[in-house]
């Protein structure tokens, strides 16, 4: 018969031999414990793996596309701002110094947001008939702008009507067209004419346009519209003043499907819209 001390010691020897302190070493004497211990890590691994996959799907997925391009949102409002400033200036003929500065600042803001113009890939954007709505040089009160030209509102009343640029990118034709009303002594009515200054153009670099003058054609309007157009004799190159070389350059600083901004070789800012 076992003594009390041997009975008390027996469980300790059993537990010691089964290594109860290290449950993973249990074998066949306790199969249910082995199964429990094997399933628990599996469930934990599945849980951790699922959590990791969920975290990766949130953190590593590509960000959603922006709602809209910021540039495409800004350009229409900046265009509207510029057109609002210049629309009441009679193409620049009534602009004062403050008007000139406001128009220039609004144009620069639009040019900066839109970025550089590359006409080597977008030359077709020049195609069409463009209406001039503002020229900073017209504030000099001459039809030549920053170049010599007929005075307006002086001894010989000259009223400037609409001004256009007609550009053909295939033939390289570049025509400046101006509607002009020439005053006449009473009782004669004023003479309305359309003057077309024909040029050829070429692209220099990515955004600079060079135009070369060819001829001026005048067509009468109104009561004398039945008269055929006539060509104004060209001043010989030897007699032409240095200020009127017959050619010029300007940079296209902004252009899209309906609006164009140019800056001339004499600092002239012009704004056009397509017609």
From TrEMBL:
<dbReference type="InterPro" id="IPR039633">
    <property type="entry name" value="PAP"/>
</dbReference>
<protein>
    <submittedName>
        <fullName>Plastid-lipid-associated protein 6</fullName>
    </submittedName>
</protein>
<dbReference type="Pfam" id="PF04755">
    <property type="entry name" value="PAP_fibrillin"/>
</dbReference>
<comment type="similarity">
    <text>Belongs to the PAP/fibrillin family.</text>
</comment>
<keyword id="KW-0809">Transit peptide</keyword>
<dbReference type="InterPro" id="IPR006843">
    <property type="entry name" value="PAP/fibrillin_dom"/>
</dbReference>
<keyword id="KW-0934">Plastid</keyword>
<dbReference type="GO" id="GO:0009536">
    <property type="term" value="C:plastid"/>
</dbReference>
<feature type="domain" description="Plastid lipid-associated protein/fibrillin conserved">
    <location>
        <begin position="78"/>
        <end position="272"/>
    </location>
</feature>
């Amino acid at each position: 018969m076992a003594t009390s001390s041997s009975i008390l010691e027996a469980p300790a020897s059993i537990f010691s031999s089964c290594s109860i302190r290290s449950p993973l070493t249990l074998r066949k004497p306790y199969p249910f414990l082995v199964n429990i211990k094997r399933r628990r890590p599996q469930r934990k691994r599945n849980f951790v793996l699922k959590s990791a996959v969920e975290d990766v799907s949130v953190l590593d997925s590509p960000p959603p596309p922006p709602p809209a391009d910021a540039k495409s949102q800004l350009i229409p409002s900046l265009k509207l701002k510029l057109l609002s400033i210049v629309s009441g200036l009679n193409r620049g003929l009534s602009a004062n110094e403050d008007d000139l500065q406001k128009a220039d600042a609004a144009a620069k803001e639009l040019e900066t947001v839109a970025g550089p113009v590359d006409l080597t890939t977008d030359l077709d954007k020049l195609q069409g008939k463009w209406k001039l709505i503002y020229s900073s040089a017209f504030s000099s009160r001459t039809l030549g702008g920053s170049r010599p030209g007929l005075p307006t509102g002086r001894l010989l009343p000259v009223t400037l009507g609409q001004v256009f640029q007609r550009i053909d990118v295939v033939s390289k034709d570049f025509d400046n067209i101006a509607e002009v009303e020439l005053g006449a002594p009473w009782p004669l009515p004023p003479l309305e004419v359309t003057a077309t200054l024909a040029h050829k153009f070429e692209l220099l670099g990515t955004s600079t346009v060079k135009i070369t003058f060819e001829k001026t054609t005048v067509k009468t309007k109104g009561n004398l519209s039945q008269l055929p157009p006539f060509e104004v004799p060209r001043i010989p190159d030897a007699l032409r003043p240095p200020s009127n070389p017959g050619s010029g350059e300007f940079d296209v600083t902004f252009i899209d499907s309906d609006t164009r901004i140019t800056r001339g070789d004499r600092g002239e800012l012009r704004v056009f819209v397509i017609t």
